[in-house]
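Re: How this chain folds, sequence and tokenised backbone to follow

Filed under: protein folding, tokenised backbone structure, sequence and structure records.

Contents: The amino acid chain and a row of whole-number tokens, matched residue for residue.

Body of memo: The sequence and its backbone structure tokens, given next.
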Amino acid sequence: MKYCRLALISLPLVAIWLCLLRISTAEIRHEALGDEEQLSVKVVTPKEMNELLKANPNAVEMNSTRTYIEGRSLHPRGRSMITYTLGTGRQTGDDVVATDSSTNDYDDLTTLKVTMRYPSGGGTGATITYVEINVYQSNSNGKAYVTSGGIGQTSIVVVVEAYKTYYFDFYSWVYGK
């Protein structure tokens, strides 16, 4: 009987926790990166994304591989995984110098951009050898651009865009020496 009471008491707590989690993920959208932030998620229009690319005419589109994965909790229709890479692969002696992630769910189809910056406070970091970003979303419509820095340099700014998705899970790794 003790276990039944515990289950009945904990069920409302789980529901409250899930509600708070949903509220907090909806508030992750930032206008700009602060000094110590590496990641910013912002809902944008296609026009705003075109303006960003126009302001960065030397932006380089990252390589991508798209995979469809069956199922996801709360989204049983499945999901797409897009892996964006920059560089030829890991190098001997390199190590993870930065990593970041963000998970976001939306009630409506949403177009958004994510800005990832290394090093987070600006300035210089390790010499970058490879970048990998994994994105999970409800479709495979998106792109990633390096807008400054890159391989062989000590800083990088990457903008990832996703079009009309119900959720967006973002995981990034920057490798360097």
Observations:
- The longest helix spans residues 2-26.
- The longest strand covers residues 95-118.
- Confidence is low (pLDDT under 50) at residues 1-35.
- The helical segments are 2-26, 46-55.
